Amino acid sequence: MSPLQPAFRALADPTRRDILRRLSARQMTISEITLHCDMTRAAVKKHLVVLEEGNLIHMQRQGRETLSTLNAEALKPVVDWLSYFESFWDENLTNLHDLLSKEDTT
Amino acid sequence: MSPLQPAFRALADPTRRDILRRLSARQMTISEITLHCDMTRAAVKKHLVVLEEGNLIHMQRQGRETLSTLNAEALKPVVDWLSYFESFWDENLTNLHDLLSKEDTT
DNA sequence: TTGACATGATACCATATGGTGTCATTTTAA
DNA sequence: TTAAAATGACACCATATGGTATCATGTCAA
Fold first, then answer.
1. Which residues of A touch B84 (CB under 8 A)?
2. Average pLDDT over residues A56-63
3. Which of A69, A74, B50, B51 has its CA 20 to 30 A from that of B12?
4. Which residue has better confidence, A45 or A86?
5. pLDDT digits (tens, 9 = 90+) for B37-86
6. Which of B8, B14, B88 sits opposite A24 (nearest CB)?
7. CA A100 → C1' D3, Å?
8. Cβ neighbours around A55 below 10 Å, total
9. Cβ–Cβ of A21/B84 closer than 8 Å?
10. Which positions ≥6 away from B83 have C-beta within 8 Å?
11. What is the phi/psi pair of residue A68, to 5°?
């Protein structure tokens, strides 16, 4: 399996992307995160596990609470994968040019 | 629903990411794509539909075949969303610093 | 030491997802 | 005109996914 797969999978859910944004401000406990999520704590916990599997966050027990911390570096490989396509953004304009040329001769 | 959701969902599957890479070289028919995918044409077609829902490709009937074309621009919003976190890549190094300081005083 | 707090861990459920097989329809080449 | 090629459209299946409810366990504060 591609090492990117767990990260891409984690990013596919809107709740998980929202959690990432919140964790970018500061680390939070599971209960804190749950306050914003409109679902049970158990569901939030599951999302956190998926995020951790994607290495996008780190969970650390601290006394009776568990702090989740963003690991933004893990997004780097994802951005790199997507960056491959940046060169095609302009190239598509070229294709549009070709298309227009053909239409001119029709 | 966030306009990004269909794109993130489409990117979550390795087969679909592979198809995007292949389409970056040239547009292909469904049968051509299927040759590389180790699954039936029907399954590939489903993936193509998901990619189209994410606006990542465009399908166009051409006689008896359907040509799939990459729409790389649709990846731009995805990259933009991820770029928000770039500023935290360095900030995490700062956090590491804090952590090390604390350990020094322990 | 004792109850409330914050979780971990499960069991269970409905739906979404990823695949297959099959059949109808349109198009092309002989 | 006719069979093969290339799809579209379904029906069907097993699993994964996203949520809930519940109960056990460790921890903190009074």
1. 21, 24
2. 97
3. A69
4. A45
5. 999 999 999 999 999 999 999 999 999 999 999 999 999 999 999 999 99
6. B88
7. 38
8. 16
9. yes
10. A79
11. -100, 130
Tell which residue, B58, B38, B43, B51, has the closest CA to residue B12. B51
Q: How far is B41 from chain A (nearest CA, A)?
A: 22
Q: What is the DSSP string of A4-57?
A: THHHHHHHTSHHHHHHHHHHTT--EEHHHHHHTTSS-HHHHHHHHHHHHHTTSE
| The pLDDT value given to residue B105 | 41
pLDDT at B1: 83
Choices 1.10.10.10, 1.20.120.1200, 1.25.40.10, 3.30.230.10: CATH for B5-104? 1.10.10.10
- For chain A, the domains span 5-104
Q: Using a CB-CB distance cutoff of 8 angstroms, which residues of chain A are in contact with residue B91?
A: 72
Nearest CA in chain A to B77: A82
> Is the shortest CB-to-strand distance from A50 to strand D under 7 Å?
yes
As a whole number of angstroms, the distance between CA A92 and CA B69 comes to 10
- Nearest CA to CA, how far is B10 from chain A (Å)? 8
pLDDT for A95 beyond 70 = no
